[in-house]
Amino acid sequence: MNGNPRLVFSDIAVCNLKRKPFRAGGLIFLVALLSFVLFGGSLIAFSLFNGTDGLSKRLGADILIVPQGYDQKVEGILLRGEPSAFYMDAEWLGRIADVEGVRAVSPQLLIASLNADCCSMPIQLIGFDRETDFVVEPWIRTALPGALSDGEIVVGGAITGKVGDRLKFFEREYRIAAKMDNTGTGFDASVFMNMDAARRAADDFVAMGGSLTIPADAVSSLIVMVDKDYTADGVSRRMNEDFDYGNSGIVVVSAKKIVNNVSGNLRVLVTFVALLAALLWVLSVAVLAIVFSVMLNERKREFGILRALGITRKRLVKLVFLESGIVSLVGSVAGVFLAALLILPFRSYIHEAVRMPYMQPSIGQFILLVAASLLLSFAVGPLASLLSSRRIRRGDAYAVIREGEL
Amino acid sequence: MKNRIITGCGAILAGLLIALGPQYLFKLCGPAQDGHWMACHWTGRAEIGVGCLIAALGVGLILFPAVRTRLGLSVAILLAGILALLLPSILIGGCAMETMACRRVSFPAITVIGTLTIVGAALNAFLLFRRGEREGTRA
């Protein structure tokens, strides 16, 4: 005894756990598994929500017009940044602008780089018209209030490099004029340049033996903003009617539909994760309650002697809660740590695997997630030992020593 | 003896994974189309050295029974683990895009193994320090 009852109690609790290392290890593993699933699942779900939010904010357009057969490719570019290149006649720009309900329309030119000096894989280069653009422009206006010259580019958040650095595409150097924030969408892995620079890059691409012929004055896609008095679905229908859907050579893609598809997939995934976490939580409480109950039976004599030595029932209950608390704390911290260690660095891999917009939470959101996961998984131990503590409260020291009962 | 083998084998495994993983398991990016190697290739080469060092220190953990020596070896593993993390993040780096193989798989794998190495080495050093204190051989 060192005169510090709290210290003695925690020492007893630690010694009890050490005495049965495999049992303590098993319980810690169970709580760690729970907190791993709880935190890991929430972190991934949160990142997907952030990504979907980023997509709907960043998309900006109501309708996208692309050459027929490329509607899936445009999803790949938007959601995952899969480099792609397709072209259609620029005269569609005027025809689409004339459709009733169209408020604004702007062209984009897509080029998949052969390679860059930074990377051994193609990068999506996107040419946009700063005069008419309403998708990229709002995001770079604050970072780049001035003009974007032919030798300058704006890079997505997933491309390493800072403003002023140079990147080479098709043997031509470009200066990074601005860098966008991460959005969790395909834009993060894209490079934006003005339309003239993009046309020059397209020529460079062809000159360097690019596998695709790029028609002069071609555009890859048109982004359309619908007038507030019209609906995107209504305008899409009108376009399909006006341009003989199926034979026009273009396809009208609803941006809302892309976001809705992603949200639908996300809901299924989140429901699955939530169910799994809830099931595991109940299972953990049940298993720990059973184990603590069995432990109590094994330790009847020990508790009886402690009672006979003058330790109150309240203190015995405290001891049981302390042991379960230590198990819960170590397990929760280990589970959250491992989940963070595995999920945070592998964000690009997870993004690619889920094939949906994915953006990890901010520091504030991350701390909240950690706190909530720790709290929920830590609660398992004390909750599980409630039953045992009730039995201790009812017990009698003399009866316990004599009959081995509480 | 049992603890020495467990900690030593753990360090050897971590060292081998750091050294050979980027070359064979979680591979780095290949050369660009013009044949030149990106920064990640050189990070991988440097990790071979750091990984071999960690593995060699792990062998030391098994061979040397003295608490103070093993404490020193554990601290060395911890520092080498930090170096393994710094190579891809600060000292050399990798490709410019997060979607490249090095940033998607190789570097995250090194981060996980390196962090576990650091945590394991720190824990081992702490336990050895306490044991040294108990045995009166203050390290």
Largest sheet of chain A: 9 strands, mixed
Number of domains of chain B: 1
Question: Structural class of the helices, strands and pairings of chain B?
Answer: mainly alpha
Instruction: State the separation between the terminal residues of chain A, measured CA to CA.
Output: 26 Å
Radius of gyration of chain B: 17 Å
Summarize the main sheet of chain B. none
Number of strands of chain A: 9
SS element count, helices of chain B: 4
Percentage of residues in strands of chain B: under 5%
Share in helix of chain A: 55-70%
Question: Notable features of this structure?
Answer:
heterodimer, A: 406 residues, 2 domains, 9-stranded mixed beta sheet, B: 139 residues, mainly alpha, elongated
Describe the structure.
The complex is a heterodimer of chains A (406) and B (139). Chain A has 406 residues and is of the alpha+beta class. Chain A folds into 2 domains: 192 residues, no CATH class; 180 residues, no CATH class. Helix content of chain A is 56%, strand content 13%. In chain A, strands 5-6-4-7-3-2-8-1-9 form a 9-stranded mixed sheet, with helices on both faces. In chain A, a hairpin with a 2-residue loop joins strand 5 and strand 6. In chain A, helix 2 packs across helix 10 and helix 10 runs antiparallel to helix 14. By secondary structure, chain B is mostly helical. Chain B has one domain. Chain B has 4 helices and no strands. In chain B, helix 1 runs antiparallel to helix 2. In chain B, 43% of the residues are buried. The mean pLDDT of chain B is 91. Chains A and B meet through helix 11 of A and helix 4 of B.
